[in-house]
Amino acid sequence: MPYLLVANASSGSGSGDLATRARRELNDVRTIDLGPEVDLGREIGQAMAEGRTIVACGGDGTVNATAQHLAGTDGVLGVLPDGTLNHFARDLGVRDPDTAIATLAEGRSVAIDVGRIGDRVFVNNVGLGVYPELVREREHREDSVGRWVAVIASVFQVMAHFDPLQGTFTTDGRMHRLAANALFVGNNRFSTSPGTIGRRERLDEGVLDVRLVRARTGVLGRASAGWRTAVSRPRRVMAVAARDVEIDLRRPRLVAMDGEQGDEEARLSVRSDPGALRVLVPAADEGT
């Protein structure tokens, strides 16, 4: 089986070791480095015409960039997890380099869902509120002070000055008032059970997992927003499963997609696109 390996040198440990191993152990691997000078859509289109499996070597951002050009096509996505968190690879059952290489060589292809906002797709989630603000603040700081110092400093900065989301959101035609510190729309249901928090048992339910953390005042109240979204459902947390979500904000706010900071937007139309993306999963797995 021939492959096109889309490598991101800026993610995780730099993709170098894992990409080198893939080229050594797999047959006919062509590699491109993800960057602004690369026409990724053209490269992927050419590779699909050659019958290649498209492999994202990096983190969730690399998977997202690659999936933009594969969703809705006959192309197949493989994943070599080399990012910081690798949420998508974990939920596919591709949790380590050995499993990843074996899956590329011997795995099976299955159809999973993606979320869509217009012509953009996401494989994990879309976030508004505290999280994308933290990402922006961290990225401004990390080159000078390092990633983890930047994370800590960003938490205090954002929580001290954060302005809650205001507006409305609609789930499958039902409108809700929006006054929140955080709003997440997930591609399929994320677990809140101890030991599996933030994981998805299935990627093919055809639903969006909407989590809203209602606005709280004070630095400590806002600081708990993201944590509460992940682990519990107190009265301040709303959880809804839907197929279509409309978000209408009073003013444009930052949007994060699959953990990557995007643009400021005031209106978002989000929908589930069932079975739109073909992916490789471990041969022994019987479900996604």
Structure description:
- This protein is 30% helix and 38% strand.
- With 288 residues, the chain is an alpha+beta fold.
- It has two domains: 3-106, Probable inorganic polyphosphate/atp-NAD kinase, domain 1 (Rossmann fold, 3-Layer(aba) Sandwich), CATH 3.40.50.10330; 122-273, Tumour Suppressor Smad4.
- Strands 1, 2, 3, 4, 5, 6, 7, 8, 9, 10, 11, 12 and 13 form a 13-stranded mixed β-sheet that branches.
- β8 and β9 (174-187) form a beta hairpin.
- α6 packs across α7 (147-161).
- The longest helix is centred in the middle third of the chain and has 16 residues, at 130-145.
List keywords for this structure.
2 domains; Tumour Suppressor Smad4; 13 strands; 13-stranded mixed beta sheet; 288 residues
Structural topology:
Blueprint: E1 3-7, H1 16-25, E2 29-33, H2 40-49, E3 53-58, H3 60-67, E4 76-81, H4 87-92, H5 97-106, E5 108-117, E6 120-122, E7 125-129, H6 130-145, H7 147-161, E8 165-171, E9 174-187, E10 208-214, H8 219-223, H9 225-231, E11 237-242, E12 244-257, E13 260-281
Parallel strand pairs: 1-2, 1-3, 3-4, 4-13
Antiparallel strand pairs: 5-6, 5-13, 7-9, 7-12, 8-9, 8-12, 9-10, 10-11, 12-13
